[in-house]
Amino acid sequence: MREVSVVYPDGMMGMVKPHVLQGLIERDGIVKFQRSDGWVYLDIDPVRSLDRSSSYHGTERRLN
Q1: Distance of alpha carbon 30 from alpha carbon 36, whole angstroms
Q2: Are 17 and 1 in contact (CB under 8 A)?
Q3: What is the pLDDT of residue 43?
Q4: For 22, how many CA atoms within 13 A lie in the half-sphere containing its CB?
Q5: Has residue 1 got a pLDDT over 70?
Q6: What is the tens place of the pLDDT at every residue in 2-60?
Q7: How far apart are the C-alpha atoms of 9 and 1, rounded to whole Å?
Q8: Contacts 24+ apart (CB under 8 A), 34-42
Q9: What is the DSSP secondary structure assignment for residue 26, as one 8-state letter?
Q10: d(CA 46, CA 24)
């Protein structure tokens, strides 16, 4: 599994496994991370939430 480049609040760079990335985002543990199309700044760019308690109450088609 490929690791993701991240920048921590103290400016240090690191590499994390994708499953660790969500936790860092939720805890404000990183400032930005790198996608294939460039850097994602958490205070600027939209980031998809993995919160399953969202306001959408329709049929979950992605699981089918």
Answers
A1: 18
A2: yes
A3: 81
A4: 6
A5: no
A6: 899 999 999 999 999 988 998 999 899 999 999 888 999 988 877 766 555 555 566 66
A7: 25
A8: 34/4, 34/5, 34/6
A9: H
A10: 15
CB atoms near residue 6 (< 10 Å)? 22
- The pLDDT of residue 44 is 84
pTM of the shown model? 0.69
Q: What's the pLDDT score for residue 53?
A: 53
Residue with tokens 């308690």: 53
Structure tokens at 38: 């460039």
Residue type, 33: F
CB 14 within 8 A of CB 6: yes
Strand, coil or helix: 30: coil
Q: Which two tokens stand for residue 31?
A: 């400032």
